[in-house]
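Bit of a strange request maybe. I'm writing a small parser for structure token strings and I need a real example to test against, not something I typed by hand. Could someone generate the tokens for this chain?
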Amino acid sequence: MSQILPAGSLAGRSALVTGSSRGIGADTVRYFAEAGANVVVNYRNKAPRAEKLGAQLRELGVEALVVGADLTDADSVQALMDEVRRAFGSLDILVLNASGGMEAGMAEDYALQLNRDAQVRVLETALPLLGEGSRVVFVTSHQAHFIRTTPTMPEYEPVALSKRAGEDALRDMIPQLEERGIGFVVVSGDMIEGTITATLLERANPGAIAERRESAGKLYDVAEFAAEVAQAAVDPIPADHTRLVGDTGSFGAE
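Reply from user aminoacidic:
Good idea to test on real output. This should exercise your parser:
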């Protein structure tokens, strides 16, 4: 991974990325640490992987707090924010990256619990830590962002609908956030090569990734998309609060 944000540009700042022990979240939190931010690595399970990443980030000379939390559980989310307050006192950047819904053996409404209810819960619980000038970034996909105008693969539809519901619920909070001087941006990406979601979709629908790559001309990989997420935390906020990453030509306008 190459340096994305200027070295030292986030010195003295603090950033929490949910679901950051692997994939897009891990690369995003690494970009913040490389820019000098103190960071929070959040994970649901597989603590050793998260702890290993935390140790790597500390070698960059920043503080790295590693906290496990089930974002669908209110007490667990509150405990996460309590840890952040104890360690850093406040938050400058909150990236709502954790998502799911294609896992086997979960409750029927798990996608909605995680992709809508938990996103709102995390933001509401973090509000006391977010001061004027702070930034909230919600990570989603074109397949979810445009689900009202463009059908997606049947295997992904429940997740897409739940993520769009989460995006809408968070957008409803924009006036409240702006009153506090908190910026909000949605980062929507095309199918990202190398993610768990892409792997699961490919398993359910062989050839889906190659077909989308041919249609779009290019698909971003995990590190490239994470760089866009990291930039969204510092770049000027678009008028529509939306940063679109990758081809949108085959998606109907909202």
